[in-house]
Amino acid sequence: MGPGVIGLWRHELRLFLRQPMALPLLLLVVLLSAGSVWAGLAEVAHQREVIARIQPQQAADVAAVAASAAADGDPGNAAYYTHHVTWDPPSDLAFIALGQRDVAPFVLRVRALALEGQINESETYNAELALPGRFDWAFVLTYLAPLFAIALLHDLVASEREAGRLALLGAMARSRRGLWARRALLRSGLLFAALTLPLIVGGLIANSGWALLGVIGLAAAYLAFWTLACLAAAWLRLGSVSAAAALAAVWLIVTLVLPGLALVAINAAIPVRQGVELTLAQREAVHGGWDKPKPATMAAFFRAEPAWRNTAPVRGGFHWKWYYAFQHLGDLSVAEPVRAYRAGLERRDALTRQVGYVLPPVGLQLALHRLARTDLQAQLAYQDRIRAYHAQLRRFYYGYLFTDRPFQAADFARAPRWPEPPPQP
Amino acid sequence: MKTVRLLAGNDWRLMARSRVAQLALLMLLALSIVAAVTAVAHRDDSNALRARFQQQADRAFDGQPARHPHRMVHYGHFVFRPLPALAGFDPGVDGFTGNTIFLEGHRQNSANFGDVRQSSLLARFGQLTPAFVLQALAPLVLIFVGFGLIANERERGTLRLLRVHGRSAAEVLGGKLLALGGIAAVLLTPALAALIWLVASARAEPLAAGLLALGYIGYLALWVLGIVIVSALVRSARGALIALLGLWTLTTILVPRIGPDIALRLEPQLTRLETDIAIQRDLQRLGDSHNPDDPHFAAFKARILAQYGVSRVEDLPLNYRGLVALEGERLTASLFDRYATAQFAQQRRQGTIATRLGLLSPAVAIRSLSMALAGTDLEGHRRFLQQAEAYRYGIVQRLNRLQAETVTYVDDGNRNRDPEAARRVRIDPRHWQEVPDFTYRPASLAERLAAAAPGAGILLVWLGLAAAAAVAAIRRLEETV
């Protein structure tokens, strides 16, 4: 009678853990994974706290505007001096992959003036700290996990061959294939558990829900890729030293070299300097508005905003109606370059996705950041929400400007609010 | 010495026969060449583009028609940060900072359109530049080529043979160091060629380029020492390889990422939005030019009236509105300066924390040295922000002074009612042409050398430690073989 299935596995586990490197390596993985989950959770909590703590500051700022610069009841002053706050709270899964949220603003204030000069504002951050990237779980999985998989699996067969036990093992095992499959599965399974247990704890703390299963599935697939790579080295009958060197070289090529080359190629293929160009053009269009004849400006504005067509005409040297009209026309005049700029960014993103189909680390990073809602798409979606909100704000102020209604202290509270509730820290 | 050369020659012959060594070396050389060519081209293109945009902005400003000076305060100006020549070797934080700022009155805008926000996530995988190749990839190739240099000989028993033939342990170690050092020298060539090219074509300072080369020579020498020592101390070739890969992962991949996280946790920074609100709040306290009863501006008015010995602002020889604009901008700019100074100080504290952790990793040290010498570190961006703000303040105050001196108070008040007054407040466009163009003053060589000193110091400490370890390794070899 041979040992039962469970007994077999337990035996293999004992053999594996008896290796001097096995347990320390696994503990190190748990430590790194837990550390990255903690760092991610702390960063997400910090971002939520920022969004929560700006609310009273913003309220005080609006109150000060109401009491001072816009106290005369002129809606033009109110619209000019009042900033409106927007925010993009981190998702419940953002802690695994912090993505671009450290270099792109997640809180931004806008005014009812031309938007294109405001929406590309950047956040203050320490670029030298952003340069190497953040220590999040996605980093541990993408970069470090393969190295640990290589350390644990590169000599799966070779170590037995080099110790002279291979023939004996082959003769003793009921199925050779079963033996190696069991050993490979055991080692990669332990690595998988060491990686994902802290993640699951973090997911429970962050209340991530079912999306976490997607992350776990991705991690399993990614580890499976590296396990197969290690088995390929065994299949090629590489010695343990050559196997380690060859696998580390593969890691280097697919995680550092090829993504770097792909970035150079994509950015060269799709230049997006329109960002600067459209900003320069928009400023010319907005300021050119001062010198254009008022009736022509108002006629063009009413074509875009017909609701105010039959309101009192603009007379005299300056009127806020006219000012806000040419602000908006400035935005409209660059609608095409704005679209082209965004299309350029999306093209770059789409090409990166194609690279991701070929390079597992790139594909994994993209998928994780999509699940975490911290990628370029999420950034653009936030900008879209800001655009929609800005349109609401404009029309809110138009409602006073074009009907010559005074803007009183109570009206500040009637301004449209950012549609999402601020998160509780 | 002859023995050392002889031993090294033998190793080179072995490497020349090893397919793995050949492949690793060729791949890295090809990669270095690609990195050097693309980084230099990218630097040239970006710099030319920025120079063109700057010219366009200068022309647009100078070409404005006759206008009320305050209109020009809001028309504003754009400035672009030029790229230093050595950015073709190490672009540093350039891609992570905006390179253009819109300058206008009463406001301090951010530097926008950094590459990182315009690129996909790939930008976070690390940019393929000569600096990155030498910092991260070259050590790995040296590990592949060198991990077995002594460990293999030990496993095969040839190490004992060498010693029996009268080779001292120091000679053996010296031979291995020379062998791997030769490989490191080969790896360095494309990057050195790129540096020479930048000196010749883009007028990079030869001293900075030379010190940059020296820094990388020291960094790779450190790895050569480390690899040979580990190969001498660890029993098996496989153990040496695993230990070296672990060391590389720790120092080159892990520590550089953990450092910033710790620095940000210890020194969390305010968002731009909060700074904006705080500046507005402080401004209200300092003086509110919209409020007719504001004590600061009431006192200002009294002082001006007393200074000119008149009782009404209409009787002043200067346009009072222009004087208020000057005073208002002075108050705002003093707050911008105060907040910017605090923010820069905090970023320096963050940098210090990260550099201290760099003691754990020579890769962090060489990166900081490299960016500092290339002029692409955060300090360079700070200089740009400070100079842009000084330029902004200069232009705005110049225009405000024009408003005070060339536009009368009465016309200024009637410009929206009286077309004749509106015509008179538009002053001659030569005033815009007289505004000097923005010229960015990069850090002097001395400042860059000072900024590179901490990184260089850490590398020297590491080299000292490695040399001590080499002596210990020689002693171990003497005993064990």
UniProtKB/TrEMBL annotation, chain B:
Keyword annotations of the record = Membrane, Transmembrane, Transmembrane helix
Pfam families listed in its UniProt record: ABC2_membrane_2, DUF3526
Q: Which GO terms describe its molecular function?
A: ABC-type transporter activity
Please provide, in alphabetical order, the Gene Ontology terms of the cellular component aspect for this entry: plasma membrane
What are the TM regions of this chain, as residue ranges? 132-152, 173-199, 211-234, 241-259, 449-474
Q: What is the protein's given name? A: DUF3526 domain-containing protein
What species is given as this protein's source?
A: Novosphingobium piscinae
Lineage of the species this protein comes from? Bacteria, Pseudomonadati, Pseudomonadota, Alphaproteobacteria, Sphingomonadales
